[in-house]
Amino acid sequence: MSAATADPPAPPTPSAGADRTSGARRFLPRRSTVLVVLVVLLTVVLVALTARDATRTDPLDPRNPSPSGAQALARVLDDEGVEVDVVRDLEAFERTEVDGGTTVLVTSPYGLGGSVTDRLLEHAADGQLVVAGAGAGAVGIVDDADTPTFVDGPEDVPADCTGDASGGADLTDLEITVDTAEAYPFDGCFAVDEGSLLVSPRPGVSVLGADGVLSNEQILRADNAAVALRLLGARERLVWFVPDPADLSAGDSAAPSSLLPPWLGPSLWLLLLTSFVAIYWRARRFGPLVTEPLPVHVKASETTRSRGRLYHRGRDRGHAAGALRRATRERLATRLGIPAAPAAPGAPDPVVLDVARRTARHPAEVAWLLDPTAPPPESDTELVDLADALAALDREVRRT
Question: Model-level pTM?
Fold first, then answer.
């Protein structure tokens, strides 16, 4: 074969090293993509954690930018030169210095309890304590007997302060407007028909029932902003205490009486009395039995046999023996003209004595035969023997 017709040489086969190199080049873009995705996920997680730590969702929280929060007030107070310290647990609050130039603001008072309130009042004694929205949860700050009254939508309520409810703040000529409030039965500031919206239940303590004046949503209404700034910015320093429910001890649960409206107890007593009167009025009056003619007449013998069959079927020998003894005693007493009622304990039985005298039997034997409380027969044979003995006694008395 000539060189012109020879087969062309085969192309070179890729080696194993070349395969590994090409596979590594294909994997490099994939690994880079995975790394980018991981970096993005970590960044999102860090941003979410940072944002969650920086903002809060509790009502009137100084880090809550939502309409129910109080971040706007906290920032304005800080811009006006008031040192705002936010503490979120009782131990941190007790480590914070409180003196005559300090105002202590408590929001979310539902996190207070008896022991927490005692420690709060003790540590804040040198400053001015302001409790915002102190309802039934503020145990020990407002007495249980002084339950606040819910007020819906008070508008343009003037201050007209009496006493020291404002804690020394000048609220002259200011008015507030809020969606809802709680009025306390004291003389104080912002009086409405149900009471006052800002009161001082004890020296150095102010309770703000119109806590909506502090919220981001309502602070720009009427003079709400001025009231909040003068009430909380009258001193150089503000300690904003947000109670932590974890500080509550086992005995700090609110008493049921503090969670119920004061009118509930008298209403329940009135309802109970009305129920008894209605029951007495509508109850059935039981009078003497009314006899009615029966549709059929049943012979006494048939009734007796039927009752006997029932006693026999139920193996109730005690009731059967008692019925026989009582019936025999009544018949004998009627025949002898003696009352059939049993004699008093320890006294002689006239029926037994008269029957024993007429029949010449021993009184103990007659007493056993006529005693319905005697031990019942243990078998049907004994019950038949008892019935025969009673019948024989009845015949003997009839013959005398």
Answer: 0.53
Q: How far is CA 327 from the centre of its chain?
A: 61
Q: Write down the residue that tokens 């709060």 correspond to.
A: 120
Strand-pair partners of 398: none
For the chain, the maximum distance between any two Cα atoms, rounded to a whole number of angstroms, is 167
Number of compact structural domains in the chain? 2
pLDDT digits (tens, 9 = 90+) for 323-335: 888 888 888 888 8
Single-letter amino acid code for the residue at 231: L
Residues 14 and 70: their CA atoms lie apart, in Å, by 72
What is the extent of the structural domain holding 355? 316-399
Between CA 257 and CA 16 the distance in angstroms is 86
Q: Count how many residues are written for the chain.
A: 400
C-alpha distances out from residue 283 to 231, 274, 276, Å: 63, 14, 10
Instruction: With respect to residue 201, please indicate whether it lies within any of the assigned structural domains.
Output: yes
The whole-angstrom separation of Cα 40 and Cα 335 is: 115
Cβ contacts of residue 78 below 8 Å, gap of 6+?
A: 84
Cα(157)–Cα(191) distance, integer angstroms: 7
Average pLDDT taken over every residue of the chain: 80
Q: Which of 227, 255, 283 is the last residue of a domain?
A: 255
Residues sharing a CB contact under 8 Å with residue 104, sequence separation 6 or more, in sequence order: 98, 120, 124, 127, 128, 129, 130, 238, 239, 241
146 assigned to some structural domain: yes
Q: Does a structural domain hold residue 248? A: yes
Query: Residue ranges of the chain with pLDDT lower than 70?
Result: 1-55, 111, 135-140, 144-145, 249-262, 284-287, 289, 294, 298, 300
The conformation of residue 139, written as its DSSP 8-state character, comes to B
212 and 358 both lie in a single domain? no
Looking at residue 302, its pLDDT comes to: 76
